[in-house]
Structures are given as structure tokens and as C-alpha cells.
Queue: 2 jobs
Job 1
Amino acid sequence: MSETTTPGGGASSVGSAPGPPGAPGRAALLRAMEELAREQGVNNVGLREVARHAGLSHAAPTHFFGSREGMIRALAFEGLALLDDELCTAQERAAHLPGRERLVADSVEFVAFALRHPAHFDAMFRTPSSAQGDELLDRARLAALDGLRALVIQVHDSGAIDGDVETTFLQLCAMSHGIASLAVDGLLHGFDAYAAADDVAERIIRAQVAQLP
């Protein structure tokens, strides 16, 4: 798993956020936030609703997270830790495949993650409160994608792809994020009425990776 450095200087795994992460009330609130956001979207969930769903007092979210934005931020950190773990696992499973197939596997897993964890995905990448120049969160986002950058370097060094490594990395990030957003919003079904969203996503990813230099 990738690591980031906290403001205090210590190393912590991707997804670590300030506060007592092991507190049962905090965990219950995050689960409630995730469950409600799956149905309503992160931006439409209020703190009192989260507290009620978790069976806690209406003051609990403020106690643990300070504000609604703080709770979304905590959900984003948790999601980045999950993404880091799941991408690492996917890369390990695909380690025996040819280079371009490994790139496909990583991008397919990114989309699959977004479909499995839509509330986390929204908190990580698609809410105003998670896009305000939060340095620690920005570093965690980049750290969660370090594995892909390393994979692109490996595949490039093996001769399976040419071109500039950083450009290829950014191209794959943009492609995966865009397809994941379409999948989460239910917009991939329109491309093929008879195929599941993840199947359509893989077809697009394969076509894009095949066009890499």
C-alpha cells in the first residue's frame, strides 16, 4: 500500500485522516453516510439524517468530523485507502499477463471500484468539498495512483508501449476516471442495451489501451 506523510511528519497509509479512526461512533457514522449517499448522492445527505440513520445523537457528526465537509473528507480518505488496496490486489492478480493486458486490468479495476463504492468515489473525486485544494487529500489521491504510475513505467521498460511515460499515465488516469463516472451515473447502458456497464467499460478500455503508442 502507498503511504502519505501526515502534517505531524509521521507516515500513514493512504486514506488516513485526522481524528480517532477506531472510534465505534465514527465508524457507524461513516457507514451511515455511505449507505445514504448510495441512494441520494453525497451532496444530498445531511448530518442529522446521518446521525439518525446511525442511531446516534444529532451532535455526533459534529463531534467526530467538525462539519458536513469534514465527514465527506473522511469518507474520501477511507475510499482512497480502499482504492489503493484494491488496485494493488488487481495488479498482483494480473502480474503474469502481457504488459498491455496489465494496463487494461488496472483500469478495469478502477471502474469496478467506482461501481462497488459509488459513495466513496463521489467523496474522493466528485464533490465540491473534496476539490478545494486540500493538500493532504490531494497527496492521498496521488498516492493511491502511484501503483499505476509504477505499472506504466514497468510496461514501458518492457517494450510493450512507447511514448512518454507521464503522458501515458495521465491518459490512463483520465480515461479510467471518465469511464468510471459514466458507469456510476448509469450512462454506459445506453451504449449497448444488452451489455452490463462493466462489460461496456472493458470494451472501451481495451480499445483505448490498444491505441497507445
Job 2
Amino acid sequence: MRRMLVSWMAALAMWLSGCANCEQLQEGATELVSHYARCRAGDTCQEIDLLALAGGQNCLGAFQCFGAVNSRANLAEFQRRARMLAQQASNACQPGECVTAACLDPRELEPVCDTELGQCVLVPRQP
């Protein structure tokens, strides 16, 4: 958590100083999702629409499609941070640096805690 906070704060500081670039913001978005997806044995995970949460017009790869986060995650705080990063990216990313994705149908996926990874992930639903 400390590493995530330091990285996120570094990206914010660079943006405030006018130095943030799109690559750093993409990395910050990935670390933010990873932070909220942390889990361990016994935790439950929930599926979320990352694109809607971060704002539909963002171009950060980590915020495309659906994802899984820990059910104990503070989604309001996640949304605040995600939207801040998305806003920064709208100023820093050039059209060729933006990431968009074709998403799988979320009805075909279910959120689980992968204890080996220590992360909530989406896996195909069992028939």
C-alpha cells in the first residue's frame, strides 16, 4: 500500500509541476486498480465497471472495461482518484497514446480472489 501511495503521489506531484506524461499516468492507473484489487484468503471480490467509474471518456488502459476489486474497497475514494487520473490524462495524453479496448461481456465473468496473485480477478463463469 505504501508503494502504491508513493507512486500515486509522485504522479500527482509531477502533474502539478507540469511534468506528468501519459506513460506515468497509465502506470498510476494500473497501480490504483491493483491496490483496490488486493485480497487474501477469505476475502470476497466484486465486479465493477471501471470505465463508468473513472469516466467514460478516459483513455487510460487500466480503466477500460470491467474489473474486480475487493468487496471492502472504498469505491467512492477509488472513483475520486480514478477520475483525477483520467482528467490528468485528458491533458497529458496525445491521441496516439490513448488506450481503448474491446470488452468481454461481464455476464460471462465472475469476480474471485486469486490467492496466489493476491488480487481480485475476473474469471469465466462455470456453465
